[in-house]
Design a protein that fits this description.
Two copies of one chain form a homodimer. Chain A has helices spanning about 1-25, 30-35, 40-50, 115-135, 170-175, 185-200, 260, 265-275, 285-295, 300-325, 340-355, 355-360, 375-390; strands spanning about 25-30, 55-65, 70-75, 80-85, 90-100, 110, 140-145, 150, 155, 180-185, 205-210, 215-220, 225, 330-335, 365. Chain A is built from 13 helices and 15 strands. In chain A, helix 8 (about 265-275) crosses helix 9 (about 285-295) and helix 9 crosses helix 10 (about 300-325). Chain A has a five-stranded mixed beta sheet, sandwiched between helices. At the A-B interface, helix 1, helix 10 and helix 12 of A face helix 1, helix 10 and helix 12 of B.
Chain lengths: ~400, ~400
Amino acid sequence: MAEPTQATLSEHNRSRILSHLYHHGVESRASIAKALELTPAAITKITAKLLEAGVIDETGDIGGSRNRRSIGLTLDKSRFHVVGVKFARSLVEIGVFDLAGKQLADREITAIDPEDIPSAIADVHRIVESLLAADDGIVAIGMAVPGPYLRNIGRTAVVSSMEEWRKVNFLDEFSDAFSVPVFVEHDARAGALAQHLFDPDCDTGSLAYYLIGEGVGLGVLENGRTINGSQGAATEIGHISIDANGERCECGNYGCLESMCSAVTIHRMLVEDGRIVPDAASMTHRDACNALFAAAASGNADARGLVEKIGTIVGYGAVTIFNAFNPERIVLGDIVAGAGQPLLDAVQRVVDERVIPELAEHTTISLSRLPADAAVTGAAAVAITQFLANPSMFFEIA
Amino acid sequence: MAEPTQATLSEHNRSRILSHLYHHGVESRASIAKALELTPAAITKITAKLLEAGVIDETGDIGGSRNRRSIGLTLDKSRFHVVGVKFARSLVEIGVFDLAGKQLADREITAIDPEDIPSAIADVHRIVESLLAADDGIVAIGMAVPGPYLRNIGRTAVVSSMEEWRKVNFLDEFSDAFSVPVFVEHDARAGALAQHLFDPDCDTGSLAYYLIGEGVGLGVLENGRTINGSQGAATEIGHISIDANGERCECGNYGCLESMCSAVTIHRMLVEDGRIVPDAASMTHRDACNALFAAAASGNADARGLVEKIGTIVGYGAVTIFNAFNPERIVLGDIVAGAGQPLLDAVQRVVDERVIPELAEHTTISLSRLPADAAVTGAAAVAITQFLANPSMFFEIA
């Protein structure tokens, strides 16, 4: 029974080596040993098993220190593939990615009829099965679902616009459904993992991904791990009140951030306004928001004013993120982040005014640099994170 | 160089065994092995070293399973002592405690002249030295300081009423000042550790301690560890806005929770009111609050109304704690928690109205059961937590 702990240690070191190769490319055994403070003997032993299992490869000689040559080790990110499945309120997007987050085939998109969730679920089963049949490089499936999500039991918590989804238990439905493991995560937390894996500037263990889309969510890494809470429902920034005397939200709380700056709210504002985006009523939330941002960029003063107003509210949320989580980096992502620099400027202005200077100075706020249409990469990142953390789930390692 | 990792594993298992004995009293090697999933051989090896170092003791035979007798192991909580030093805005309290949190001598209290911080610091040095000289069972010193505290660099962040304290770097000032190690922690986080160690009902790794005193603070355990943030300034609930359009706080933010329900604010309300506690102006913050709570308990309708109003605001903060951290348990502590059941009822009412039912049902909200005058126990808990986590800092372990 000591084996679990010793085995845990071995797996931990395997994971550290794989993660190091993931983030640093080709490395010699000696440089890995130095970076991870492991003995050369331990590195030799662990990498031999990873080589034998086909997880990593040896490359030709690379330059070593003091003119010694040494053999490089590498994790071939293109060899292993994952499926990412992103559930949103109105559609499901499914894509195949390599470990670098590169999309390998056209995304599959299934519209969701809120009255017929079972048929959307059946579509997901069918599409994933066909992707698995077509690509034997797929090692895992990641799924991202909107919050509030009860991560530990696998269901969304009650929010009336997602009422029908409450009946779906994602873990029961998908955990053992396919020939490879499935991992389900809250969408904003999935986004935080994607930033951490795919943007080299976000290679920090203290990161907040602030998702401002149809919903408003947050994923926070503290010491490289997501903050989850006892039911997996922590970091629900969208339902934190920024005005306890404000209007009631469908979650039960009052003055929720989400109700003031989501893409849904912005779309409603545009329809009510009627002038900035005249045909907003016939557009999707995303298209209406993008039309607003385009109008602002082309100099429309009303559009600029509205972006400024939205940025101020997004800034209030950022101030709460500082005081609640004090991350080293905050990344704004999803539809509303598409407003770009004017939005970021408004957020930064609010932060500079309202956050204690020693905290504000320490934290970088930026826009996501991942492709805006690739929200599904977050789902892929969930699977890749597990691949790097628990290699023995995916390979026979002697 | 593999040694650090192997040594870390050994220390980790020593810490787990010590913590298990701390929370469970006398246990046989076999029951420890079972609880911690370690082999009997590993337990025998580790406990032998702990016995040799004098950290734990063998007791006589205890009942084993199936009528086998076995020898008990125990951590004598009365043998090892710690000093707790609690810095508040207007005074420093210093006490000696055993590992169970039992106070061993009268507390020493030093008033702070805000214009002469250096003399308060000198007092702390002098008092701690004399306590160390009088008790060679003291193994560590814990200090608790008000937030916002930049834990990693050792200073409070700027808040104007604490301006002079900014010049003090607690780590520089105290880390190497004494013959035993010193640990400094944010006061609400120290309070969370105290609840975790000293209240058996709080033996959960998912705990929020909601400190409502002269300041309003929060300490959160996630998976048994405090959430700290990149600068150690996370979980600053007192400066999270509950009304982004509210009045400006000295921290720079608007509508901060602390400015609406701290003991300082309540005291000011009582002075302005003039009727509920007629001589409030001549009282300390604590005495004025206690007079209010006594008036409410004796049936004064205005006093009851004010406690209800304060409880509602404390409840808004609790709703934010649910949405930000989703803890399994929330404990209300410090001066304002002295209002007792009427305050707790108001908080629960707000939570029941505003939190998603599946989250609200899962989390217990309670009043601290630790002695209200023993805020300094939090400082002691900081030291005891380190003693249990890093035994090799305190003993020669071969």
